[in-house]
Amino acid sequence: MKKPWIKLLFLIICLPILSYISLRVGVIAVSHEDVMTFQADGSSQAMIALADNRIPRTVVALLVGSVLGLAGLIFQLVTRNPLASPDILAVNAGASLAIVLVTLFGFSSIASFTTASLIGAFVAGVIVYLLSANGGNVMYMTLAGASLAALFSSFTQSIIAYEEGALDEVLFWLTGSVAGRSLTLVETLLPWMAAAVILVLLLSKELETLSLGDQVARSLGQNVGIIKFVAVTLAVVLSAFGVALAGPIAFVGLLAPHLAKYLFGTAFFARLAGSALIGSVLLLAADILGRIILFPREVTVGVVLAVIGGAFFIYLVSVRQGVFKS
Amino acid sequence: MKTYRFRKGPVSFTLRKREIELALLLVVGLLVSIYFGLAIGDTFLSPASLAALFIGAGDAFEQLVVFEFRMPRVLMAITAGASLAVSGHLLQLTIKNELASPEIFGIVGGAGVATATFFTVFSDERTNQLSVPLAYIPIASFLGAIVVGMFLFYLLKRGVPPVRLALVGIGISIFSQGIVQFMMLASNVYRKNDIQQWLTGTVYAATWNQLKIMVPFVLLFLLAAFLIERHVRPLHISEATATSIGVPVRGIQRGTLLLSCLLAGIGVAFVGAIGFVGLMAPHIARQGLKLPYIWATLLVGATIVVLADVLARTIFYPYELRTGVMTAVIGAPYFFYLLRRMMKGSMR
After folding, report:
1. What was the ipTM of the complex prediction?
2. Are A128 and A79 in contact (CB under 8 A)?
């Protein structure tokens, strides 16, 4: 498998297969016929399960996975930090804190959720950008991001501790889950997400140049400052949409770009598209796994990914020493 | 700089005037915050009436309030603050990075996982009560911290450089967050609340019995920290320097790592994950006061937690905030100050 296109095709084929599995697996039995003869207004238990739960969560997993994968790749490129991702760099934590805050003040509409998520992610993103713009040390950036995330989440925890009743819903959302999201939410956000993703793909050439390093990029005539700014903005927007839809989901943003790099090497566009596809595959697979491990109980996808991803991260920084030179 | 030298037989030391003054200042600061800790609450006590209580005068009710409720709480704040601060101090010296803290190293996360698991597993489904005494919780928390400590220790022994251990720690904290969240979703609403309490951390429920168990351990660990200190400081300059003046670098690194895990473990065992003390205190002592010593960190850490508790009790009086909320509130501006310094590039 030398050609990147074949690998991309393989990933693309994975999506419908996983989606099909995702539609069928769960507490309520859904047969092959049910999936094939699905009608939105069906009244059987399987139809209702499909319409209210399985289809929305599958769509959400696909979307969120791809935006997180892209955001992670951009963060890693711009900050030149192989450990950068929306979760490590506190972007997720910032968005979560903002969402909990607006919920505290009684807003619960989709619009307020998304706006808050955007603002929170931007605040964290700006800090990260400033840290990296100065040619910041990778180690410091990672530690600073992690400490910032710890700070944000300790505020989030404090707020929840005092408003448990009102925020029980938020607590569930905070663990990161693709379940229980309505399709209307997806419909509202879809155009925006699509626009951001397309922009990123259009910027593929510029990002590739940037990945060669600031100096090379500059000598090739690129305005590095502007490209970096645009790229980080896009990455922040993408992660904010991800958080607004599914809560702070760890590690997809870290893992997907690494796997893509491993699969596609230097073929940049394939790496970019691959990150998004791998993100979707990962999130969907983790969600299916979460439904199976403790059947009939469901483990939210955020938990599954934190555990798997945590182990991977520890492996990455302790065993694979070459990945990260400090 | 004015210094005082003392030399007699094998004993010799140098005292700098500035350091003595600052030390006195820190002690006075701690004493003042202890006074506030003892005096503020539903019944406010003037310094005179507090002093009267200490010599046995004063009415029985005030005696009860001060000696049974406020005193253990203040002492707990001091003990926990001191151990977390010194833990952070040792970690920062070992990896030569000012952002190190017990939280970053995942030690607190490990304690959290153990605690959350304990609460979830030992909860009676029918009565919603804990099926084992609450007094066992600190043991679980402490063991959780030690397990993470052992893992880090193993990696260090395998040749993973200390700096990288901080990254491993970040992984461990995210990993443990996942498990804690899972435990919270799996347990009933009472246990969920218990776990949440632990995660924020509070000295609210401190008792004399807890202190009797905790203090000897903390004193022992602190003593060890003081003994190891003079070997760690050359390490902060560079490993080569330390080796050349005869410091057994590997051994000292392992020793400090183990010691900071023990300190952080005992620090959070009884009060929960009170955050940011381990990050702030050593930094304030070293950068703010130019006192890169354990004793200074210890005093700063103790003062921070006592003051945080006082604030937590008074800000929304009669409601109490948790101590951990206040340390986060104090920690936030400080943290941004740190970040600003990083951006200026003065911290590489």
Report:
1. 0.82
2. yes
